[in-house]
User: Fold this.
Amino acid sequence: MPLVPLDIPSGVYRNGTDLQATGRWHDANLVRWMDNTMQPVKGWRERSSSAANAPVRGAYGWRDNSQDIWTAAGTYNKLYIYAGAGIQYDITPAGLTAGIADADVNSGYGGSFYGTGYYGIERVNATMATPATSWALDNWGENLIACSDADGKIYEWTLNTGTPAAVLSNAPVNNRSAMVTAERFVFALGAGGNPRKVAWSDREDNNTWTPTTLNEAGDIELQTAGYIQCGRRVQGQTLILTDVDAHIATYVGGQFVYGFERVGTSCGCLSKQAVAVCDAGAFWMGTKTFYAYAGGRVTELSSDVSDYVFSDINGSQVSKAFAFVNGRYSEIWWFYPSASSNEIDRYVAYNYTENTWMIGQLARTAGFDAGSFKKPTLFGAADYKAYEHEIGFNYDSLVPYAETAPFSLGSGDQVAVVTEMIPDERTQGEVEAVFKTRFHPNDVEREYGAYSMSNPTSVRFTGRQIRMRVQGVVLSDWRVGINRLEVKAGGRR
Assistant:
């Protein structure tokens, strides 16, 4: 009887129909692929026992001039600092205008434009939503720069845990976001209530904002049909994303200080937090696909899971979506609320080195890469605590697994009879396999196993369509490669 190798390509494929996904992994949680081998995403542990007062919508980590590490985290009405040991301090600015924890969607009377839809019918896709409040956070040297989009002021915190963040003198108000450029200017985005305006302070002086012949402060209104979402530093430039297009600001000095160029159209960013930057460029989530910028022009990422992600995302709460870089594994992770949830409960991740995609369920609302810390930091959606990730193998109640789409082992319409599995698993007994079979697409699915993946493993099942699920049963750093099944052709059924 022949041994049939299950040489399944790395990554998840979740576009189109089950038949289109034949021979691919179709569902997964907390697993990744490295060098064509499946392995578990590592677990997490509490970084701080202190909790925020609400879901964190913006987090940032940095080191001060004394090499002490700090974490900033903002909620709809609070701004917190965590010292290196995890001690939490409330540095909420005096007079901060509170925002909202969830997007406010009016799908009823007055919630859209006159004449759209039918009388008495809820207008889900044409409503006007007030987004969930989020924070833009960055460092000005060793100090923190912070801006809540509900409040609009730019604040600075100067490392005194007993003193709240204070308004940046002379900076514009009613801003949508803020950031610090590589050239040491503070950018106010959507400045002064104008959603297209970019204003910047003098170089190395974040309290001077009025342009004169003696400084480099300035402003410009972008020529765009959209409104500014956010800005990020990218390879000696500043990337500014709106909800419809992308622009680059390049420092030119002299009278103009900055030159601006549109580098992408119809490539808007889904939310203020849905973009992440690494050495490979900037990556962000749009309304129906993913985009990348690595110099030159914006490109659309070919995604193996876009159908799955964008058909099951809560459109009214997309303002909560956020991205972070997991640099150790060359990954960009996006977290978003599924269609059945008002809070973030799922993720989609892209490995930009191996060009593979991953999906899964994990409730995190904000976070950042290792950088100043040894491990990535993410904030929980239920308990609002900070967690250190990619450490150990604690997953709470979750289980790392991957499952294929239906595939056929027989030729034509023959039934395959499988009697043995020879697994390619690094440490025997740490992973188990389950097989699910049908004789035709609408047949009742039969399940066999779970089988402990020893070498070899005696199994016995039949079917025309077969799905395989592998899942970790031991909390360890297991590996799964190309498994083989001993198959004999059956008859017709």
